[in-house]
From TrEMBL:
Belongs to the NADH dehydrogenase family. Residues 5-323 form the FAD/NAD(P)-binding domain. This is NADH dehydrogenase. GO terms for molecular function: NAD(P)H dehydrogenase (quinone) activity. It comes from Paraliobacillus ryukyuensis.
């Protein structure tokens, strides 16, 4: 019998973990495995706010996929997925044409959600991928250089749309960078105005209130002004229009960065997979409902909390856990061991948000709240653990964070 072909789309946390787990559990004779990714490298999405602010070099965030996977077992295709057709059992790629699969793992991640606010697509910078983060940092440099030459009376105003997890992490890095920017462009801190617009009445809505308060206080101390209960209504080239209690205000700005919300990859919305705004409500074993051989994992999958029934917010740790269980289920199916097909049980390990290099906040699996130095240390530990899980000791040595 011909060996089955497993195609994995996306080498983010979910897809890469699935590929590495398959590689460990299958031989070359068991299956042909193809991993498709836009780039020849995986990037650490959880570090992108640092790349965007310029506190971390892009190369540190990129990890060559060739160095992580065994190419005897996995064929890596650097290409862009353009179509998913499950009824034809194929996916199409921009350069390599269409490939037929026996098992498909869709792990194409997220993209920024603009909520159709006029001007966000045209004028906002985002932190949605390594390319977008690099672009934001490069544009910041170009605009700061121009500003320092023209010596305007107006401050260099950076407006961040969204005071959620990504916005807060970016603001922490941004404020850390101010001294360097002042030196590099002969500016003073008074030349900067830093504003964050948040629709809800607290920072990091949905997160713990006390931790949100701590984050806001820490960032205000570093020079950020928060406009809470305020919505972004329109973005133009040089100003943002915001609304609070039916009053609108125009905020002149030099750069607008949109961090408020993510959505599943649009490609899934255009596919024939059942989905809601690109996200697939997967079955317990991470399959598409009524499908025998298509799995969706990571930020493109919706799963519900077993206790309160609400959708679980997607995270890197969840993406990695799903990658592992999905791969193990495919192995069980290939080996005809139905008993080994397992449901996904999310093990919440807690979450930590950085507020720059020296401060952080977090909530642990046992609901313990942590702040400051302790949270910073734990965040580093988690980041280093992820490196170890993806590439063992050699990757940890090369990329570890202190
Ligand atoms: P991704 O990591 O987005 O991977 C998707 C992959 O698919 C990418 O390699 C992409 O290039 C590729 N791809 C996309 N489209 C195509 C295409 N058409 N063709 C080919 N390839 C394609 N989570 C945490 O748990 N802890 C944190 O501290 C944390 N911090 C974060 C900080 C920031 C700034 C951001 C943006 C997110 C953070 N998250 C964090 C969330 C976490 O990064 C995501 O939940 C996680 O990346 C999801 O993994 P994924 O594999 O589903 O998708």
């Amino acid at each position: 019998m011909a060996k089955p072909t497993i195609v994995i789309l996306g080498a983010g946390y979910a897809g890469l973990t699935a590929a590495l787990t398959l590689q460990k559990n299958l031989t070359e004779d068991d299956a042909k495995i193809i991993l498709v990714n836009k780039h020849s490298y995986h990037y650490q999405t959880t570090w992108l706010h640092e790349n965007a602010a310029g506190s971390l070099h892009d190369n540190h965030t990129k990890i060559s996929i060739d160095k992580l996977v065994d190419q005897e077992k996995i064929e890596c295709l650097v290409d862009t997925v353009t179509e998913i057709r499950s009824e034809k059992q194929h996916v199409c790629l921009a350069e390599h044409g269409c490939i037929t699969y026996d098992y498909l793992v869709v792990a194409l991640g997220f993209e920024m959600n603009t909520f159709n606010i006029p001007g966000v697509t045209e004028y906002a910078y985002t932190i949605g991928s390594i390319d977008k983060s690099s672009h934001l940092r490069q544009q910041m440099d170009i605009k700061l250089a121009a500003y320092s030459k023209q010596k305007s009376d107006h401050p260099f105003t950076i407006v961040v749309g969204g005071g959620g997890f990504t916005g807060v992490e970016y603001l922490g890095e941004l404020t850390d960078q101010l001294s360097d920017w002042c030196k590099k462009y002969q500016l003073t801190k008074q030349d900067f105005k830093l504003i964050t617009i948040e629709r809800e009445h607290s920072v990091m809505p949905g997160f713990n209130l006390e931790l949100g308060e701590y984050a806001m206080q820490a960032l205000e101390n570093k020079g950020i002004t928060f406009y809470l209960g305020t919505s972004v209504k329109r973005v133009r080239a040089d100003h943002v229009i915001v609304e609070k209690n039916s009053w609108t205000q125009e905020i002149p700005m030099s750069m607008f960065i949109w961090t408020a919300g993510v959505r599943a990859n649009r490609l899934i919305e255009q596919s024939d997979l059942p989905n809601k705004n690109g996200s697939v409500e997967v079955t317990a074993d991470m399959r598409v409902p009524h499908s025998k051989n298509v799995f969706v994992i990571g930020d493109s999958a919706t799963i519900y909390h077993p206790e309160h029934g609400e959708a679980v917010p997607p995270t890197a740790q969840m993406a990695m856990q799903q990658g592992k269980i999905c791969a193990k289920n495919i192995v069980a199916m290939i080996k005809g061991d139905k008993k080994e097909i397992k449901p996904f049980n999310y093990k919440e390990q807690g979450i930590i948000a950085s507020l720059g290099k020296k401060d952080a906040i977090g909530i642990l699996f046992n609901n313990k709240k942590i702040f400051g130095r302790e949270a910073v240390m734990l965040k580093r530990l988690i980041e280093n653990r992820v490196l170890y899980q993806l590439g063992g000791l050699s990757l940890l040595r090369k990329k570890k964070k202190f």
